[in-house]
Design goal:
Helix content is about 35%, strand content about 20%. The strands form 8 sheets. The chain has a 5-stranded mixed sheet. Strands 16-15-14-18-19 form a 5-stranded antiparallel sheet. The protein has a 4-stranded antiparallel sheet with strand order 5-4-7-8. The radius of gyration is 30 Å and the shape is globular. The structure holds zinc ion. The site of zinc ion (ZN) has 9 residues, from loops.
């Protein structure tokens, strides 16, 4: 083997081991040790080496998580050892009855147990061969499942290869583990909100969503979903005979599987009851849905002895949390006005206890959802909390109708500002058309300064309300023009808090471009789309002037999203806001480069940017400045046009300044230009 290839092979192996290790720390242990940037550079290096030496690509390489073309249908997998379903118990007496039944079958045996949470997801079986993930299937009917290997590979907490290099010597050559794939609750809410906005049918619960996401024929779709897994059992293994289930769980964790840190050994049934009570109270706070606990007899020998009855193992039982449904009256349907002007209906309910929590309100998503369910004001309705963050109204109790119930009418005018409400053709949401609607402004500014936006610490909902009421803020950019005096005039605002607010605002000026884009509140543009846009365009002006075709060329941007971005930047008022953000000192370009068409084939930080230098610079001649701009991939031109990204202003600038004001060109002084130049030169290693 040539020396160069040998070196490349050694390096790719090293990189894979490193990336595997950091994936494990990040996705399984939730304890990352290196920055995202450092991780990215390892990953990029591996990508590059594999591109140069395709013969070195292995299926378990971390670059190969999303691979394989869409399939027409899933293959069928026969489970060598069936995946059983569990019997249920619903209270302490039934739990004791279960124990008495099994105790009779193993007289004299001191039983101990393992308690686990019962995840609200989809059971899967993963087969490992020689330390590498070989095949994964859904539970199906327990005997036969669907081969969803390429989809399971996209879940980053599923190891493509086992820990250890090479994996521990005592690892069986072939074995199967079992676990539950789930969809995190918060992401579920977000996905459903997006689907409601687009008028698509909603997912009923996180379990269906997990199943729907895993059973996608195109693995790229699965990869875009935030699925995760807990591994909780060994299905079968060649030449491996642990004594207890607890030992199995520890062994699985050591191999790099994501097992739950909440699993608990219980020496008695009382301890099982303690575990149950504890999680009955706290399970709502978990980031994933659970509907009970699972109790397993710890000794595998006893498990074998107890065996299976029908399709249920005798040695394990699900101890369910109480049903999370209740019936109550739908008193009224209220309307929230969102930041995009959408009128979001919600149910006002007669307060009712649902699994220990008082529920007074529930989401109704949109008008069509209300019609589909035929909900009428005054109805008795079934309310459910099934692992969701927000309770849902499932259906009306039609038998209980008296005839006095009335159907819901979407208001014709905005309940906040009285503006006209329209529901555009083909859209699911009715909207307030008044662009100065205070409800929209409040939501928009709150979003802008919030965690998903510019993250301006110390500027919360209440402060935003005051700023709008006093007229200090009439659009999001006004935030950057607030003065100490402005703030001190507000209620409950002391010298010190004013100072804190101002320094948070100052800090937020330097947020990366994708944060700014996400903060603007453009419909359908969440943080992931914003990141893709920032990566692609690099500067806000390129995004603002992009055509529909250009926008749809960005990965993850479909026609609806592209149209929404395009329309947003077409609006004069929005363009003014962007200009004002610039004037307010907000950074509107990303560090580094856009990857758009103009930047292709080059890796220089200023590709696609146009500079005009006017006036006299102190630190270099005009010619030197132009040479350094070109060296960074930028274009230095004489005349100011709409395409100009920066006007660099030296001493005695002359008439170009007026033209720049007309064109709203971004101007920088010499100091700022030097700072940008240093930053760019550092990136290329030229500085
Ligand atoms: Zn309004």
């Amino acid at each position: 083997m040539p020396e160069k290839l040998k070196q490349a092979r050694a390096r790719t192996e090293k990189l894979r081991a490193l990336i595997h290790h950091h994936d494990y720390l990040y996705y399984v242990l939730d304890a990352p040790e290196i920055s995202d940037a450092a991780y990215d550079s390892l990953f990029q290096e591996l990508r590059r080496l594999e591109k140069e030496h395709p013969e070195l690509v292995t299926p378990e390489s971390p670059t190969q998580r999303v691979s394989g073309a869409p399939v027409a249908a899933f293959g069928v997998v026969q489970h060598p050892v069936p995946l059983l379903s569990l019997g249920n118990v619903f209270n302490h007496d039934e739990l004791i009855a279960w124990q008495e039944r099994i105790s009779r079958l193993v007289p004299g045996e001191e039983l101990d147990y393992v308690c686990e949470l019962k995840y609200d997801g989809l059971a899967v079986a993963l087969v490992y061969e020689n330390g590498v993930f070989a095949r994964g299937a859904t539970r199906g009917d327990g005997e036969q499942g669907e081969d969803v290997t390429p989809n399971l590979r996209t879940i980053k907490s599923i190891p493509l290869r086992l820990n250890g290099d090479p994996p521990q010597a005592d690892v069986p050559p072939r074995f199967e583990v079992r676990g539950e794939v789930y969809f995190p609750k918060q992401e579920f809410e977000r996905l459903n909100a997006e689907r409601a906005e687009r008028g698509e049918p909603l997912y009923a619960n996180p379990r269906n969503t997990a199943a729907g996401s895993l059973r996608q024929l195109d693995p790229r779709v699965t990869a875009s979903r935030p699925l995760n897994i807990y591994v909780y059992a060994l299905g079968w293994a060649e030449g491996f005979a642990p004594a207890t289930h607890w030992e199995v769980l520890e062994w699985l964790a050591a191999l790099g599987f994501r097992t739950s840190s909440l699993n608990r050994w219980a020496g008695s049934l009382d301890k099982v009851e303690d575990f149950y009570k504890e999680w009955l109270e706290k399970h709502e706070d978990l980031p994933y849905g659970t509907d009970g606990i699972v109790v397993k007899v710890n000794s595998l020998d006893v498990q074998r002895h107890l065996g299976v009855v029908g399709r249920e193992p005798r040695w394990s039982v699900a101890y369910k949390f109480p049903a999370e449904q209740a019936v109550t009256r739908l008193l009224d349907i209220g309307i929230n006005v969102g930041r995009t002007g959408s009128l979001n209906p919600f149910a006002i309910l007669e307060p009712v206890q649902v699994s220990g929590v008082t529920v007074k309100m529930a989401t109704l998503h949109n008008e069509d959802d209300i019609r589909r369910k035929d909900l009428r004001i005054g109805d008795l309705v079934v309310v459910q909390r099934a692992g969701e963050v927000v309770p849902q109204v499932l259906r009306p109790v039609i038998e209980a109708r008296t005839g006095s119930e009335r159907p819901f009418e979407m208001p014709k005018t905005c309940p906040v500002c009285g503006g006209e409400v329209v529901r555009p053709e083909g859209e699911a949401m009715a909207r307030c058309t008044n662009s100065t609607c205070p409800a929209q402004l409040l939501e928009l500014v709150s979003h802008f300064v919030g965690r998903a936006g510019m993250d301006v610490e110390g500027v919360g909902y209440a402060l935003v309300q005051q700023l709008i009421k006093t007229g200090l803020v009439t659009n999001v950019a006004d935030i950057f023009f607030l003065t100490r005096e402005d703030l001190l005039r507000l209620e409950r605002m002391g010298e010190k808090s004013a100072q804190n607010v101002l320094s948070s605002i100052e800090a937020s000026r330097h947020r990366p471009l994708h944060r700014v884009i996400a903060a603007l509140g453009i419909r359908h543009v969440g943080s992931e789309t914003a990141e893709a846009l920032a990566r692609y365009f690099g500067v806000i002006d390129k995004l603002a002037s992009a055509s529909l075709e250009e926008l749809t060329a960005v990965a993850d941007v479909g026609p609806v999203v592209a149209q929404s971005i395009f329309t947003w930047f077409q609006q004069e008022s929005n363009r003014r806001v962007v200009q004002k953000l610039k004037e307010g000192g907000v950074r509107m370009e990303s560090r580094g480069i856009g990857t758009g068409p103009e930047a292709l084939g080059t890796q220089l930080p200023w590709s696609g940017l146009e500079f005009v230098v006017t006036g006299r610079l102190e630190s270099m001649s005009r010619g030197q400045a132009e040479a350094r701009i070109k060296a960074m991939g930028g274009k230095a031109t004489e005349s100011l046009t709409r395409r100009t990204s920066y006007l660099v202003v030296g001493a005695d600038p002359g008439s170009k300044m007026d033209r720049a004001r007309q064109l709203e060109t971004h101007t920088v002084d010499e100091a700022e230009f030097l700072r940008l130049l240093r930053e760019a030169e550092q990136q290329t290693g030229a500085g």
